[in-house]
Amino acid sequence: MNIYCIFFFFFKQKTAYEMLRSLVGSEMCIRDRNYYVPMRVEPDEFSTTLDHLDKLMQFAKDNKMSQNTQMWIRTASQKVRETLVNVDKEQAEERASKEIEEKKKKENPGPTAFTVVAGHSPDFTQQIGVKRLKGRGASQSRVKKYVADKLPGLLKAGKVDLSKPFIVSAGEAAVSDLQHKFTALKLLENKQARVRYLSPVKAKEKRSFDKQAEPGQPELEYQFITTEKYLVNCFNLRAKPDFRRMGGTQTEHCEMALPVSMVDPNMTDFQLRPTASLAGFAALEKQRAAFAGRAKQLEHLVPEGMSLESSLRQEASNQFVFGPSGSGEQLRTETESFVDGLVHGKKRWFLMSPEHFNRLRKEAQEVLEPASAFIFFEQQLEELIEDYDLGSEIPYFDVNQLPGDVIYIPGGMIMTSLSYQDSFSYKQKVITQEGGLGAIINSKFWDPQSGEVPRGFKYAVCRDLSVAAAGQQLGVQVHPQQAGMIEQVFGQFFPGIEQKNLMIIQILAECAPALNAGITGTYCSAVYSPCVQQLKKNAAAMGKQVPLWLSQDPVGKDEL
To answer: How far apart (Å, rounded) are the C-alpha atoms in residues 457 and 235?
Structure first.
């Protein structure tokens, strides 16, 4: 603030002599004269000027100068003091006004988009995005809706059927803040994150209702690419008009996910408010992220060229899911239940129970083929409804999701979702099954009933690949014939010591956070030390060492 003040001071002084025509001879009359004395003070000189005037006043008193002179100095000092008070007051008011405006902006920042699609005069270096799909999505909602304020009480009372999907309209109150916090351009600024990406060809090859990925091979099909390359591939970053992708078959493979800890470590334990009571995994996420952050010190023990940190972070219970208009994968299922809170865009969800899906697949095998979400909604769904009684005889769930909506998907449910606009959401696994978090952690490395290899028998790698010894230690016996077959599978698909080390580290990455967090009901207190000892043994055989921090028992190990 620049303020230039010019003060005018008035005083009287008997200084002028004039002859009065009415007087005779040498008689004179002295008249009073008024003087207006200007004084200019620069903005940065108020305090200095006031100090000088105070000294000048003291000098005038000491030298017994006239009352008029002292009055002039006193008046000048008073004017400068008044100006200083007014300046301080104006500056305080201005600061308060700015604070109010900033607070209003923060409280009501207004909606914003994840991307900015290029217009008539685009700046293709800054504008990122794909044009939205035509159509409105689901014509009617087939999913039960809840009010955000009432859902927590209903969940606590056990009055919500968690075997079926539901949606909470405007369920996340902080959606406006999240919209401003997460945009495509801000994702571009993240130089450390790597997106687990499948090319269009690989994504198409991978689509199947039956084919299981061979043990030991799934990671090899993915590439870990920078966010910049991903936005170039899928969101038209820097694409010229003739090369810009349209939503649909050109973007159907582009729905990707990043662990929350890679995007914003401060949101590692964030919970969607309406379903916070189900978010039992949140207690582990900071510890999981910390373990993954030190994983680079273990990369010399795993297959060459593998990003161990990225691989471990993919196991996080919360992720940001994003994709351009037209993206979405085939009908599929996830073992664990989850909630998804949409921050940007618009999605359409289709869901079926496994029982009804198998019936539909049997009756409509000529129509229902593995395909992207775009092909399913655009080509298959209408024919399934008209010709195969989908909806009338065979029930399904269908619903649109808008920003702020939170959808719940039960584990095992057949599902797919299509982005009608460039979308960004927060996905979080939730706990609904009996046994809670402990049972889920155990299933990651010892779950013989599942029959899955390597997951269901992974702990065997910490016992020199002896399935029988692992089962005997954990109190879950495996039939000798089955154990022999499992050991053969391990030997065939995981022959290298580096592959075995990777599985050991995956077990430790699950158990270290669980032990530190004091999670009960897990095998972790029993398996942690044997796994560390096996890793040390394997490392010694390779002529390498295990870092000291891994050898230290987690805080809660002895307590469980």
So the answer is: 41
